[in-house]
Amino acid sequence: MHDATTTIRNAALGGGSSIRWRICALLFVATTINYLDRQLLGILKPVLDREIGWSEADYGYVVFSFQLAYAIGLTGAGWLLDRIGSRLGYALATASWSLAIAFHGLAGGVWSFAATRFGLGLSEAGNYPAAIKTVAEHFPQHERSLATGLFNAGSNVGAMLAPLLVPLILAWFDWHWVFVLAAIPGALWVGAWLALTPASPESSVSPTEAVATRPLREIVRLRGTWAYALAKFLTDPVWWFFLFWLPDFLSKSHGLAISEFALPLFTVYLIADVGSIAGGWGASALMRRGWSVDAARKGTMLVCAIAALPVAMAPTLHALWPTILLISLGVAAHQAWSSNLLTLVSDLVPARDAASVAGFGGTIGAVGGMAMAWSVGHILEAGLGYQLIFVAAASAYLLALGIIQILVPRLGTVAD
Questions:
Q1: Which of 49, 146, 390, 405 lies 20 to 30 angstroms, CA to CA, from 114?
Q2: 290 inside domain
Q3: Could you report how far apart the first and last alpha carbons of the chain are, in Å?
Q4: Would you say 83 and 64 are in contact if contact means Cβ atoms under 8 Å apart?
Q5: Is the Cβ–Cβ distance between 256 and 321 less than 8 Å?
Q6: Is the four-CA dihedral 331, 362, 81, 223 of positive or negative sign?
Q7: Residue 412: inside a domain, yes or no?
Q8: Cα 138 to Cα 351, 393, 415, distances in angstroms
Q9: Residue 139 lies in a domain
């Protein structure tokens, strides 16, 4: 039975369809804030290089600390979310990472940055398991990839906003304040999330069962869990690479100053936004036309994998804007891929287990990100340049799709 608060909230929000798309809008905003916060370090790297004097390997260790915490946090966040619910869990995660980003303003060296990045990674890990579980709870299967594409587009918006906002803040304050001010949007979001979302999925649109979630030891035995996890291991590092090293690549390869990052990075992530939404829309549209879940999901992912291949040539180009457009295609392909890979969770398991599978797979993806952070830092420190890194990034998707096909030859409709 719904309590009075839930009844009033539902009346304010409108019908079921209205509720779920407004929830999707809140997921989009949370993901935007999540990626705005984590992108700040990469944008500020040229400034911090001068102020702190860290080496490329030192920066790699700082990124590694985030990835290590992210890896730990994802499985823990997924397990917790499936037990306390996505509404409360999402609020706790967002409040925690907002506090963690504020503490970056107190950092002054490699190890203090590593510590604050560890805290940020641990708390930001809750975003995707919470969002994936929320979509699985509130959306029918044929709408899930579109909803995922829409909220996942927030990662690009956050990455676009960072290079626009950082120079504005630096014009008035030093770099410490960039991190402190970044905590405000997350705090505001927590209030909006608790005020505008139903207390439970049952009070919204798409009832979920009362059956207890499966233990993690059972979830990790599923072939589908490993299909998702290994695909994350191979392709998540590509996104982390662009997020943390693209400003540095543009600075070293094309001589851009921090004040010149805004337009190129805005272009990259704007086109990536198109990819995120188009990838989610494409699979949903194919299902509405009668394609099976298996054909629609894997067919869309194959197109994404092929579209990512040309980014391998980016380091060979000498002109800035052809390089930007080629990288934009690669990042858009990644985001279209990601919209479908994230939705794969709800193709594989019922909503009650979605956060646990998403969290475990995210942990494996973060382990790949840790390997990437260590490898890229040492490859650059050795003076080997970016070519090998871009080739590996371009080829990851076809390999990941092959693994998915081997482990899950046919996707079907999951009944809760």
A1: 390
A2: yes
A3: 21
A4: no
A5: no
A6: positive
A7: no
A8: 9, 34, 14
A9: yes
Domain count within the chain? 1
Q: Is residue 7 part of a domain?
A: no
Question: Given this model, what pLDDT does residue 205 score?
Answer: 41
Task: Tell me how far apart the alpha carbons of residues 23 and 58 are, in angstroms, rounded to a whole number.
Answer: 40
- CA–chain centroid gap for 49, Å, is 26
Distances in Å between the alpha carbon of 150 and those of 104, 144, 272, 342, 372?
29, 10, 12, 12, 27
- What are the tens digits of pLDDT across the range 172-198? 988 888 888 989 999 999 999 888 777
* Helix, coil or strand: residue 404: helix
Q: How many Å apart are CA 232 and CA 58, to the nearest integer? A: 25
Residue 280 near residue 148 (C-beta atoms within 8 A) = yes
| Sign of the dihedral through C-alpha 177, 180, 182, 187 | negative
The mean pLDDT value for 63-86 works out to: 81
Residue pLDDT, tens place only, 106-143: 887 878 888 999 999 999 988 988 888 888 777 876 77
Q: CA-CA distance, 341 to 23, in Å (whole number)?
A: 21
Q: What is the CATH number of the domain that holds 27?
A: 1.20.1250.20
- Radius of gyration of the chain from its Cα atoms, rounded to whole angstroms: 20
Residue 212 main-chain phi, psi, to 5 deg: -65, 150
Q: Using 50, 70 and 90 to split pLDDT, how confident is the model at 357? A: confident
**Residues spanned by the domain of 342:** 14-407
- Single-letter amino acid code for the residue at 18: S
Q: What is the pLDDT of residues 397-414, one digit of tens each?
A: 999 999 999 999 888 655
Residue 313: how many CB atoms within 10 A of its CB?
Answer: 16
Give the closest residue to 340 by CA, choosing from 278, 388, 385: 278
Token pair belonging to 93 = 């995660």
SS3 category, 412 = coil
**Helices then strands, each counted (H, E), the chain:** 16, 0
pLDDT digits (tens, 9 = 90+) for 29-55: 999 999 888 888 878 888 888 888 777
pLDDT band at 201 (very low <50, low <70, confident <90, very high): low
Alpha-carbon distance 400 to 306, whole Å? 12
